[in-house]
Batch of 2 targets.
Target 1
Amino acid sequence: MTFPHLLITGGAGFIGSNFVYHALKSNLARRITVIDALTYAGNLENLSAVAADPRLTFQRLDITDRPTLDSFFASTEFTHVIHLAAESHVDRSIAGPEAFVRTNVLGTFHLLEAVRKSWSGALSLQSVADRPNRLFLHVSTDEVFGSLGATGAFTEETPYRPNSPYAASKAGSDHLARAYHHTYGLPVIISNCSNNFGPFQFPEKLIPLIILNCLQSKPLPVYGDGQQVRDWLFVSDHCRALALLLTAGRVGECYNIGGSRERTNLDLVRAICRIMDQKRPAGAPHDRLITFVADRPGHDRRYAINSSKIQSELGWQPTQAGDRALEETVDWYIENRNWWEGILSGEYHEYYARQYGA
Ligand SMILES: NC(=O)c1ccc[n+]([C@@H]2O[C@H](COP(=O)([O-])OP(=O)(O)OC[C@H]3O[C@@H](n4cnc5c(N)ncnc54)[C@H](O)[C@@H]3O)[C@@H](O)[C@H]2O)c1
């Protein structure tokens, strides 16, 4: 299925840029427009390999800027929207929650309003092959569900209990998206995904942080006892799931997406160290660099996702077994030194010093 015109918000960020590549490669839309405010986390270099593709247009736009958003929507018509723009780092939300409320809650509200106005009159939920002719896919996180005990997994019915300001702001945006479907009939699907990793992930997130610190022989900071459990998913598996939801997901539904690859943070850090020992034997053993640091306030202990709904309804499966995807990710950071060296200076350098005192 090829959509007439797909809008991707946050397309210069980690998952957004990976999704742009996926959408172009799979011919998901005849035209693709990316909007992104290019905050510290957005990087146009992420899209440089496809910048010349005639199907792709980029516009720098902040979703909290309503007048600009309204004139943007007045000038162009989109049939499908995938909303990825967000403030996304839990640690930053603890240090400065306001930006999270502004972008994730208020920004999502402005976007939903702009889309609702733009689509009023154009909506037909039963069009070609029973697919809606318009669709808004709101991309969210499993962190909205809070923390699990030693057993169990989040389902689509799990009540929301967000613990960090990041998770609370994402929960607020999910509620708005759901309400716009319920009240105004806006064709919305919501996805809640577990932790992603892969190329183009900003160095503040755990996996690139550990890879880059290994490459620079710097301490590998592990929060608390390192026994927090996460369910890691390779970003390309997430992108496939998102494309499937756009083409075949049921309107008004929520879908959980997860890798069914639970592991503790410490186990994950050790796995990266083992890969680095092979790739950079001169620095081995890299796990000598592991340094336990004060735990993140309110740190959720365990997340696990039950993704049987998207698996049974749409046939989606995570494809990455073992640590192959982790190794691919390490290779990407080794091969793309220019990309991350540019980021490690400037704003990120100051952030890192504040966070880890080095
Ligand atoms: N990374 C994960 O593990 C993960 C897991 C599940 C869900 N998600 C969700 O997926 C989405 C993308 O996450 P990511 O990891 O790619 O984040 P990211 O921080 O790498 O990218 C976010 C992008 O949004 C842009 N942006 C921020 N504020 C904006 C604004 N006001 N207007 C326009 N653009 C703005 C940034 O410039 C950046 O390009 C987020 O909604 C996040 O909550 C992420």
Target 2
Amino acid sequence: MNERKGHAERLICCYHGWNYDTDGKLMGVPVPEGCCDGFDRADFNLARAPRVGEYRGFVFASLSAHGASFEDHIGPMKGNIDDLVDRAPDGALALDAGMHRYVFSGNWKLQVENVLDSYHVPFGHASTVNKAGVQFARREGDRKGAEVIETGKQQTASTWKDRKSFTVGNGHGWTSNTTLDDSKRSSAAFDEYKRALAAKVGADRAAEILKPRLHNSLIYPNMSIMGLNIHVRVIKPLAVDRTEVTIYPIRLLGAPESMNSGNIRLLNVTHSAASFVQTDDLESFVRTQKGLHSQQTDWVDISRGLGAEEPDRELNATRGLATHEMVVRAQYRAWVGYMREAA
Ligand SMILES: [Fe+2]
């Protein structure tokens, strides 16, 4: 089993050649002589993830037999998956365009906090956004880019300060971005995409789908849907100070190939291991991890915006400013809950 994707009838162990069907059933044992009397292949099937859930093609697994059900855990975040998948004219995605994978020397929670952090962008990514967002302007169909920072107001967070964050329990959350108005994007490929979407779902529904609502979404604890540089991210802790991040480009099925390949090209620029954007964050994570070794304080303050949260009855969520730390507090509240359950 050396390939991360593909088609195979058998899964073959690279060590002794024991092989299994795709349900994990042991099918073949080379040189079975020597196995103990009464050896029964049925006793040696692959271990199963105790709990598995699926929604619109995304498969989630828990290695714990206990805990909230998949439905209770994912809850309202199904809407965020819908927001992404509904953008595909054929109603489905393909994550078959390769991946970017890298490891940083820091705790996994640093990357999880970061996907919904809007405070760092003008500073952590200053080398990218300080030229009026020209890098994001390379996104297919954008004329002015995503306007991550106002021209003439470099080194301020002014364009980010009115954006909103939302939490819905279980550590989940998302940020909104009203500048990501796809109904205003235009190019030959994007116009073709909009026509294809409207042909499949009708003009009204297409307009609703393209209306800006979401920027980045976090499905706690380890998956995010990134709206600007359209991709799915999976965060895997390897050790307390070592984390693997995998970035999957998304192809919207039914969209023009030139639009999909434009998104993939942009992701190479922004989130590959040699990119202009994600590398800024990775450097910050590593420096933060080093700083956390300090013996001078036991505490990290995450109180920014504490008390400023308010209910959003339309979205059935709690709303705060995206430059505040409401989403971070929600993540640690969930984390403490899981740690208590496990204790
Ligand atoms: Fe960042």
